[in-house]
Amino acid sequence: MSPRGRSDARPRARFRKEERLLLRPEYRRATAHGNRRTSAHFVVYLASNNIGRPRLGITASRKVGKAVVRNRVKRLIREYFRVSKHCLPPSRDVVVIARKADAEMRLQEVMRELDRVIGVRR
């Protein structure tokens, strides 16, 4: 047990600032030098980094939908990364560009589609 009364058996699944792509040059490098993979709802770029852990960048333009839909899609992608980062290849930058999305998309659908595109096996 940890000092706060939590069991240390399961690592915390957070989405920390250091796990995000924040700067435009980071996005540009990933899209210019990364592997491009596509699906019905997403374009994913996978690029190597020298940090030792996966990082995520998300882009959702107005083509995806109105602000409510864009924000929901981004939340679903962040949640996918948060629970799946231990399955992702280490030292990879993952840039997810959302395409026209279904406003009713569920987390399980997003997880299934991104797992298939990225190549994650659970």
How are the SSEs ordered, and which strands pair?
Blueprint: H1 24-33, E1 35-38, E2 42-48, E3 55-59, H2 67-84, E4 92-98, H3 107-118
Parallel strand pairs: 3-4
Antiparallel strand pairs: 1-2, 2-4
Largest sheet, order of strands side by side? 1-2-4-3
Question: Strand percentage, roughly?
Answer: 15-25%
Please outline the major beta sheet: 4 strands, mixed
Low-confidence stretches: none
Kindly provide the name of the CATH class. Alpha Beta
What is the CATH third-level topology name? Ribosomal Protein S5, domain 2
Mean pLDDT: 90
- What's the architecture, going by CATH? 2-Layer Sandwich
What's the helix-strand series?
HEEEHEH
Over the alpha carbons, how many angstroms does the gyration radius reach? 15 Å
DSSP summary, beta strand count = 4
Helical proportion?
25-40%
Structural class determined from secondary elements? alpha+beta
Shape: globular
How far the N terminus sits from the C terminus, by CA atoms, comes to 28 Å
Number of helices: 3
Number of domains: 1
What does it look like?
This protein has a four-stranded mixed sheet, sandwiched between helices. It has a single domain, classed as 2-Layer Sandwich (Ribosomal Protein S5, domain 2). The longest helix is centred in the middle third of the chain and has 18 residues, at 67-84. The protein is globular. The chain contains three helices and four strands. It has helices at 24-33, 67-84, 107-118; strands at 35-38, 42-48, 55-59, 92-98. α2 (67-84) links the parallel β3 and β4. The mean pLDDT is 90. The chain is α+β, with helices and mostly antiparallel strands. α2 (67-84) packs across α3 (107-118).
